[in-house]
Structure formats: C-alpha cells, structure tokens
C-alpha cells in the first residue's frame, strides 16, 4: 500500500464514488471470462473464416481451445515517425508466439494521426475525436471473438488513450501495450523553439525554419520532447500495461526487438489457459489510475491527460475527477525536467535513470500504490529497474540507480524541482480549467490583466502581425471546445505569446481549447468548461475585463461586478466554416454529443 495517507484517502474516495459503475463493469468482465476460450462459441463457418489464411498447423491449433491465439491491434502507418517502426512488429510477434506455443494474428488496424502535422490546420479539429474513434475501430477488430489476449501497438497522442479504452472495454482479455520508443536526439528543443520565434518575428525565412524542424524530427520514433506521446508511454509503464523498462528504448535496436518479443510471450502467458490469468479489466483498478495521475504530476506530463485519464478510467467503471487530479497535484512533487519544462529530452531522461529511478523514488516516498497487478505479474516494485540486452539476446534487468545520473533532469523526492505537481486545476467564476505549471516560472503563476478576446487562434496571430498586441493582457480564445469545433490544440499561439512575454509584457492565455503536452513558458488556463458554445462564462468576457489567473491558489476569475457580468448575454460565433473540409463533416455527430472537458470530452461516456 502507498504510505501517504492523503493518497490513500483520495483512492478510497474514488473507490466509493465508482461503485455504481465499477461493480457492474466487473460483473460483465467476469461473465465474459466465465464463458471460457471464446473461439469455442464460434460455429464451424465462423471459425473457418477466422483462420482461413493460417498455416495447416495453425489451423489445427486454433481448431481446439488449448492453444492461445494472440490478437494484434496496430496503429502502423509509414508516414508518421512514431508508428513507422510497427511495420516489422507483426512478424516479430508471430515468431515470439510460435516460440511460446501459440498463434498470433493481426486483428485490425486503427487510425493514427499526428497533431504535429495538423497543428493550425483544419485536420486538427478531428484530433481529439480520433481517440474515441480509435477505441471503436479496435472494437471492430476484436469483435471477431477469436483471441485469448491482445497486444496493442500504439504510441502517440490519442492513439494510446483510445487503445486503452478498447482494452478496458474488452476487459475480459489480457492486454499488453508494446511501444516503439523515441527517436534519437536531434536538434535541441530549445534551439528549435528559438528558430520558431525568429521566424514568427520575420528574422529568418521558411528555409531556415524547415531546416531546424527537420533536424528536430528526423527519424523513426516519437518526438523527443515530453508531450502527450511520451506521457502516454510513462502512463502505460507506471500503470502496469508495459513490460518493465519498455517505454523509452529507441527503435531499431536489438533491445527494442527483445522487449517486443518478450511482451508477446508474456501476453500468451497470462491468458486463461495458463496459471497467471490477468484480464485487463481486473488488472486495472482505482489504485492503477491513481498511480497514473501521480506519474503525470511527477513528470510534468501532458495536459491532455486531464481528459484522457478520465475517459480511460471510465471505460473500466472508475470515476476520476479534476478534483482528484488537483488534490494529487498538491501532494506529488515534480521530479523531471524534460522539455518544455527543461532543456533535456526523453533520451536524456532515460539515461538519467528513467522510469525505473522515477518509480523507485515515488515508491520510496509513499506516493505510489505498490500492491497493484501488472502484466509482469508482480507489484510495481518490479518496475524499479533498467532494461539491458542479455548475452543470449533476451532482456535482462538491473536495479535502477540509487541516485540520478543527472540531477538536472531527474531529481529525488528529497530534492524535487518543485514540491507540487506539474499540473494544476483552476476554478472560479469563469468555470473550471487546467494549467501546466512545470514550465512556467513561479513569478508568472499569478497573472492579473485585462482581456483581449478572440474567436480563434488565427485572429490572435493576425493581431500580432498587425502590431496590435500592446501592453499586458490575457488572451481569451473561445469557441474552441469539443462541441464547437472538436477542441483543437492551439499550439500556434505558443510562439506568439512567448515572443510578447520575452519582450517584457505580462501575458497569459484563457481558452476552452487545448494546448497539449507542449504547453510552455506562458501561463495558459486551458480546457475551460463550460465551453463558450454552451453559454459558459467565458462567452460573456469582453475586451478590457480584468481577469485574475492564480495557479498558486488554483483560481480563475473575472474581476467585474458579479451581477452585471451574469446579466450579460453570451457571445455567439459563426462556426459554419468549421463544419466542412478535411473530414470535419464526418464528425458532426461527435461534436453534437461530446461531453465536457472535465468529464473526458468523450462521445462514448457523454
């Protein structure tokens, strides 16, 4: 059990709150498990279709119920760097399954889009909804009822949360997540940011900018900054869905391949046919979810997970709230400095001791629940390791270091970078919001300034180019929520507001949109709910209204006469231009039923 009584109390509260949902969920999982190996319920014609392309030996094996069949759900495509390595994984997984006495089949593919490609583009308005679509697509692949365990191949922003929702929806099956790892280090992230600012100021041209970006994103693997993709990997490991040490090993290395084969064999070892049956829906519980939130705070992870974790938990019948996340933030110290809240990248984090050291420190101080189930079959203490390649080509593990190899990147709980987590929830007369504080200097944690109101990021960028953004202000960018236009990331604002801040202006952002794990040095109150299109208070803000953003107290308020402010009619916006083009028309039904940000911004649990 975790030693910290405050974390125990929050966990107990989540357990109690979740009972009306968690208990029926577990009943459904156990009912599905009780039916035994699921191929046994298939008719001969069904089964013949299911293994038509298999070898004669595999057909013989799958005709009975004794040989486990491993399903593969893959997000492979060869346009996106993080997913390109998955091209070779099915062959490795099949080989590993054969060696373990099982069979493996690709059950289905899911879409994988990249927010880096769609930043500031119409396609970004599909991004958040792709999470729930991925869960649905995985569900289609698994609906054939041919499998005894599943391995999920996914890395980036919405893909892993979507796959996790699918894994927990099919919670009667064991689930192991297999990552591809980060690309090797390229142009330092701070240098990339510097060139972006120079381009925005017109001091360098497109050729220089493209050269810098290409040197940053240069090969297979995830982007190396600590955004949502790498936060995903941290979560899968600290929640027990990864094999220990799997998260941050580079693609195309013998150790990466060894970890992939090991994970495949482990998935077959934890099926109902063996002695270590570990259905995902039973494995992941309230303690696992709390461990994920703790990891997010300790690393200053992606703000997107204040929505994703809520939706992921709900798929397992667990009700997590922003209040839970906020209270955990007040308890858990920040132990990692990885860009954008430091100069290091995730390769430096891994070299400094990585997940093994992080988990060891958090366990030592009582911030994590150790007595959880994992795919490795032991408590979380088994994850306090560093992975190595053994002489036989298999994975071997060494104890994580007792001290960080680089205290500027990875700190101990005795000497944290800050005594609270990297994320903070805000509430006040403007509703609820989220802020990432880990990259924001303490002197900017409280901002009080007049509002400048915009209805999209293009308006703000145009005002910047026209030289209209003078003095101190809080930029209010509204009608960017899930129902309005799919809640796109507003990452294009990072550079502009950063330039103004560097010029000495006091600036901040308030929006019902997203900023993601790339949220940087400018204070940004994001995910504001209720959103503007629902008539939330953000829709009543006018230019010049005094706003106070206080990330210390956790408040966000407009400092105007309360009665007069409440009496104002909410602003409206013409969103017809957001309804068509780049597939947006296909997601009209999603926009219509999307839930609020503090409930996961989901169409599945709205």
Automatic annotation (TrEMBL):
Gene Ontology biological-process entries: D-gluconate metabolic process; Entner-Doudoroff pathway through 6-phosphogluconate
Coiled-coil intervals: none
Domain Dihydroxy-acid/6-phosphogluconate dehydratase N-terminal: 68-381
Cofactor: [4Fe-4S] cluster
EC top class named in words: lyase
A Pfam family hit: ILV_EDD_C
One of the record's GO cellular component terms: cytosol
InterPro entries to which the protein is assigned, alphabetical: 6-phosphgluc_deHydtase, Dihydro-acid_dehy_C, DiOHA_6PGluconate_deHydtase_CS, ILV_EDD_C, ILV_EDD_N, IlvD/EDD_N
Cofactor note: Binds 1 [4Fe-4S] cluster.
Domain Dihydroxy-acid/6-phosphogluconate dehydratase C-terminal: from-to ranges: 408-601
Assigned EC number: 4.2.1.12
Reactions accelerated catalytically: 6-phospho-D-gluconate = 2-dehydro-3-deoxy-6-phospho-D-gluconate + H2O
A GO term, aspect molecular function: 4 iron, 4 sulfur cluster binding
Pathway linked to the protein: Carbohydrate metabolism; Entner-Doudoroff pathway
Keyword annotations of the record: 4Fe-4S, Carbohydrate metabolism, Gluconate utilization, Iron, Iron-sulfur, Lyase, Metal-binding
Binding site for [4Fe-4S] cluster: 156, 223
Database matches in HAMAP family: Edd
Function: Catalyzes the dehydration of 6-phospho-D-gluconate to 2-dehydro-3-deoxy-6-phospho-D-gluconate.
PANTHER family: D-XYLONATE DEHYDRATASE, PHOSPHOGLUCONATE DEHYDRATASE
Family: Belongs to the IlvD/Edd family.
Protein's UniProt name: Phosphogluconate dehydratase
UniProt organism field: Rhizobium subbaraonis
